[in-house]
Specification:
Radius of gyration: 34 Å
CATH architecture of the domain at 329-439: 3-Layer(aba) Sandwich
CATH topology of the domain at 329-439: Calcium-transporting ATPase, cytoplasmic domain N
Oligomer: single chain
Low-confidence stretches: none
Shape: elongated
CATH superfamily of the domain at 329-439: Calcium-transporting ATPase, cytoplasmic domain N
Length: 619
């Protein structure tokens, strides 16, 4: 509990003491009404003055029919009718419900608050040979800062000096530290674990990665779900209607049937207490608010309840291939030697490629298990559009595409796998071929299986790659439909076709967040994968998964389905119980005590149910 909640708790305890005294005196001094009335009135005022003030204040603001107004009218009416215990009881138990509600919201806010604490306000700089603190907002791009071991980075930057393990858990939800060396990027919000780092700032304070994340989370409440909007509209219509019904209940029966006015006024006041829509007004928004907080802890940023609800209805999921289902990085997947060993073929190719910065060259160098000796490599020449030639130990060696070996006059069968094939040969001898491809992510198959188990009926992949490569990925991951050899504009056309074909479910697009901004914006829900630091992804996507793990999509789906299920449970339960007790109250079978317990009880149960979105649980 915070300080404000503790004060409210003390007030409730004090009110309960006077209420208990009133009950005891009612038994001991049955004929002394004034003493009992004073005890109940003190109990009432301790917790009720604030609610009465809110009701009066809201009336002047034009917000007449809220729960404060209903409670004020009902409780004052009870006192006028001489029902002191019930008047005080209404306000006391309503205050208990309000405190419980406040604590529930506070618990939900903590998950967001933890995220908000990941941006320090100061940084360390070197001035006159000493390390001093400076306000992070005053640091400009290009300035150098020092991040000590155990400190959290306040700004984005690039490592100039030092080496350290970096904890990115606050941003990605992953607990495994990442090693950072000179030239690597450091993101605000990450924790430097064990080494002193000198960093050149690349973004100013309010433009950092963590600032964009915090802004996204803070604004998530603006994108309300249909369920939340339904509750808002429902309350605006429902509350005036019940007030009119209460007035009719109070005065029509006495006029028509000549029954006692006090009896029907009491029933009308009971009707007003029952009608309070507290359970709905707080529990449904709390469900979605809690879900946003829960997701943020897992490194999944959702821009609002509307996207949680839309995601829960998804039945078609469209994937970009490169960087989403695959790693987006070239790697050696197969080595086919001829008359030499695999290791010898790789090593010979790496010697020729040693001076190149091309991604294919890097993948070959990364595949070699030992340091490449380049002392005997001379006369390296690039052959435009075909490959590289170098003299290795006095022999000219060629590394390149099929066209290159054909130019050498060698009779070599072409590799038709559809993947990138790198041939290695000399002027009169063929050494073999190295197959390079963009490897499928390790968790991709498991993620696709889980996604289908969570209700996604159609999985689609869009790629600009050749048919053979696309079909291989499709078969390995059991994707339902693949469209290959697509230009960027073709991908948008295919997405539009899928959106036009949809019946009830929503269409979700999953991309790597770099070149997929149009597609992310076009679909019902756009999910950006591995978007840590990618501005375009954070702006275009509706859901941003901060690391590169496809299994996070499953977490997002689970959270969305669980949240919508809980919200619906609360709506059905609250409206159902309210309707039943309203009827009982109108015909005199439910008194004000039962009305109070029904109202507070329903609210407490609904709030407890909503808080389940904060924790792991059923799908």
């Amino acid at each position: 509990m915070n300080k404000k909640q503790k004060i409210e708790l003390y007030k409730i305890i004090a009110s309960a003491v006077f209420f208990a005294l009133g009950v005891i005196l009612s038994v001991l001094l049955k004929k002394v009404e004034i003493i009992k009335a004073v005890m109940f009135f003190i109990s009432y005022i301790i917790v009720g003055y604030k609610i009465i003030f809110k009701a009066v204040s809201n009336i002047f603001k034009g917000n007449l029919f809220d729960e404060n107004f209903l409670m004020t009218v009902a409780s004052i009416g009870a006192f006028v009718l001489g029902e002191y215990a019930e008047g005080a009881g209404v306000m006391l138990f309503f205050s208990i419900g309000e405190l419980f509600q406040s604590c529930a919201v506070e618990t939900s806010r903590k998950s967001i608050a933890e995220l908000m604490d990941i941006r320090p306000d100061t940084v360390n700089i070197i001035s006159d040979g000493e390390i001093i603190e400076k306000d992070a907002q005053d640091i400009l791009i290009g300035e150098e800062i020092i991040i000590k071991p155990g400190e959290r980075a306040a700004l984005d930057g690039v490592v100039l000096e030092g080496q350290s393990l970096i904890d990115l858990s606050a941003l990605t939800g992953e607990s495994i530290p990442v090693e950072k060396n000179v030239g690597d990027e450091i993101l605000s919000g990450s924790i430097n674990l064990n080494g002193l780092l000198k960093v050149r700032v690349t973004r100013e304070y309010f433009d950092t990665t963590v600032s964009k994340i915090l802004e996204l989370v803070e604004n998530s409440a603006q994108n309300k779900s249909k369920s939340e909007n339904f509750i808002t509209k429902f309350s605006r219509v429902y509350t005036p209607i019940v007030v009119v019904l209460a007035l009719a209940l109070a005065f029509l029966p006495p006029l028509i049937f000549s029954q006692p006015l006090s009896l029907w006024v009491y029933r009308a006041l009971t009707f007003l207490v029952i009608s309070c829509p507290c359970a709905l007004v707080i529990s449904v928004p709390l469900s979605f608010f809690g879900a946003v907080g829960r997701a943020s802890k897992l490194g999944i940023l959702v821009k609002g309840g509307s996207f949680i609800e839309t995601l829960s209805k998804a039945d078609t999921m469209v994937f970009d291939k490169t960087g989403t289902l695959t790693s987006g990085k070239f790697s050696v997947t197969e080595v086919i030697p001829q008359n030499i060993s695999k290791d010898e073929l790789l090593y010979l190719a790496s010697q020729v490629e040693s001076a190149s910065k091309h991604p294919i060259s890097k993948s070959i160098l990364n595949a070699v298990n030992k340091k490449v000796d380049t002392s005997k490599v001379t006369d390296i020449k690039e052959i435009a559009g075909k490959g590289i030639m170098a003299n290795v130990s006095g022999k000219d060696v060629y590394v390149g595409n099929y066209s290159l070996v054909c130019d050498l006059g060698l009779d070599v069968a072409q590799n038709n796998s559809g993947k990138t094939a790198v041939y290695v040969a000399s002027q009169n001898e063929y050494y073999g071929v190295i197959i390079i491809s963009d490897a499928i992510k390790e968790e991709a198959k498991e993620a696709l299986c889980r996604i289908k188990a969570l209700g996604i009926k159609n999985t689609v992949m869009l790629t600009g790659d050749k048919n053979e490569i696309a079909d291989e990925v499709k078969n390995k991951l059991s994707i339902d439909k693949v469209y290959s050899q697509l230009l960027p504009q073709d991908k948008i056309s295919k997405l539009n076709e899928l959106l036009k074909r949809k019946k009830r479910g929503s269409v979700v697009f999953v991309g790597d967040g770099i070149n997929d901004a149009p597609a992310l914006s076009l679909c019902d829900v756009g999910i950006a994968m591995g978007a840590l630091g990618a501005d375009s992804a954070i702006e275009a996507a509706d859901v941003v998964i901060m690391n590169d793990n496809l299994l996070k999509i499953c977490d997002a789906l689970k959270i969305s389905k669980k949240t919508v299920k809980i919200a619906r449970q609360n709506i059905i339960f609250a409206i159902g119980v309210k309707a039943l007790i309203l009827v009982l109250g109108a015909i005199g079978l439910a008194n004000m005590w039962q009305a109070v317990f029904a109202d507070v009880g329903v609210a407490v149960i609904a709030i407890l149910n909503s808080m389940r979105t904060l924790y792991k649980g059923e799908k």
